[in-house]
Design brief:
By secondary structure, this protein is mainly alpha-helical. About 75% of the residues lie in helices and about 0% in strands. α5 runs antiparallel to α17. It comes from Corynebacterium meitnerae.
Amino acid sequence: MVDTQKPNVGLVFSALLLTMLMSSLGQMIFSSALPTIVGELGGVEHMSWVISGFMVTMTIALPIYGKLGDGLGRKWFYISGIAFFIVGSALGGFANSMTMLIIGRAVQGFGAGGMMINSQAIIAEVVPARQRGKYMGVMGAVFGISSVLGPVLGGWFTDGPGWRWGLWMNIPLGLLAMTVATLVLHLSKGNRDGFRFDWLGAALLTVATSTLILATTWGGLQYPWTSARILGLLGTSAVAAAIFVAVELRATNPLVPMHLFRNRNMVLTTAAGVVLGVAMVSVMAYMPTYLQMVHALSPTEAGFMMIPMVGGMILTSTGSGALIARRGNYKIFPIIGLCTIAVGCFLLTRLTVDTDLWTLGAYIFVYGFGLGLVMQVLILIVQNSFPLSVVGTATAANNFFRQIGMSVGASVVGSMFIHNMQNNMAERLPAALAAMGPQGAEFAAAFQEGAAQSLTPGAVSQLPEQLRDVISSSYNDGLTPIFLLLIPLVLAAAAMLLPVHEDKLKETVD
C-alpha cells in the first residue's frame, strides 16, 4: 500500500541528509579524541572498541532495519533509529569508564545503522534511478564532509569543552531530526501481506558478526591468534554463518534472501564493498591519531589535516553523480576509483616522521579522490538491479558487507597498529632511556608502572626529545606498513567489478 500524498523531495532529502550526517559523524568523531579519551579513562588495549563497538552494532542493524522497512514501512523504523542514537549518545556522554563508553557507542551504532540504511532506501522510494545519482552523490559528499568534520569536531570538543560534548550534541540534533521526519515523511506502508520477521536469522547473524569482530579485535593483541579463545570465536562465527545461510534458504520471509546473490551485480559489488570498507576505515579511523602522535598536532589540527581527503571525496562524489544522471553510464567510476585508492595506499606507505604536512595532505587527497568515485556508485548499481519491493533489503545486504569490512578492518587494523607500535616501543625505548642516564631511569620506572598505557599528545609533547622520537617513530612504523597490505586487496576489488553488467538506469521510481 502506497501513501497517496506525494512526498516533497526537497524536504525529505534535507531530513535524510541530517541523519546521514549524524550517523556518519558518529563513526569518526572520536578518531582524533581517542588518545585523550584513553588518557582520561585508561585502557589503551580497549582503544579500538570505541570505534569497533559502534561499527559492530551498526553492521547488525543494517539488514534488520532494511527488512523491517521493506515489510512494514520505513518511516517509523527510521525514526526509531534516531531514538536509539540519542539514547546511546546520552549513555556515552556520561560514561566514567571505557566499558560504559563502549556500551553507549554500541547503542548509538545500532541507531546509526537504522538511520543510514533507511536514508538510502527512502531515496530509492522517492527518486528514480536515473536521477538518483545526483542525490546519492550529495549523500556521498555528506559522508565525506563528516569524515573530516568528525575529527575536527572531536578535536575541537577535546581541546575545548571536553570530548563528551561530541556525544551530547547529538541529543538536540536527533530531536530536531525526529520532528522533521515525523512531519515531512509520507512513504509506503510496506508489503505487509504475510510479513513475518525472521528472528532466528537475526539471532544467528548477530552471533556470527559479533564473534567475528571479537576475534579480530582481540587476536594478536590480548590473546594469541592460535589461542583457544580466538579459535573458538572464529569457529563460532563460521558455524553461525553456515547455519544462518541454511536457515535463510528455508525461511518463508528471510532476513537476507539468498536469491539476491544470484544477481551477478549484487555479488560483485558486495565483494568490492567489503574491501572498500577495510580501506576506508584504515585511513579515516587512525590517521588523526597518527597525526597527533607523530606530528605533534592538536586534536583540532589533526582533524583539519583530513580536509584534503574530504576535498577529493566531495569533488568526485558529486561530479560522478552529476555525470551519471546526465549520461547514464556508471560502471567505469568505481573501477577507476579503486585503482586510485591503490595509488593512495602506495603513497601512504612512504610516510616517515620527517614527511612534511603538505606532502601528507597531497597523499590523502589522492586517497579521498578514489573513495568518492566508489562509495555511492556501488549502492546505485545494487538499487538499479532490484525492484522497489526489495530495494531496502538489497541495499541493506550490500551495506552490511561493507560495514563488515569496516568493522573487521577497524579491529584488524587497530590490533595490528597497536601491536606494531607496542613492539617498536619495546625495542627502541631501552636504548633511548639508557642514553638519558639517571633521568632515563626515572622514566623507565614510570613506563613500567603503566605510563605508556595513558600517553596523550599533550603528555608526549612534555617528554624529552629522545623519548618523543621513539614514540613518533613507533607510531609511524606501526601504521604505514598496513597500507602496503591493502594495495593487492584494493586492486583485486577493482578487477571484481570488470564483469559488472551495466543495466540501463530506471527512469521511474517503481
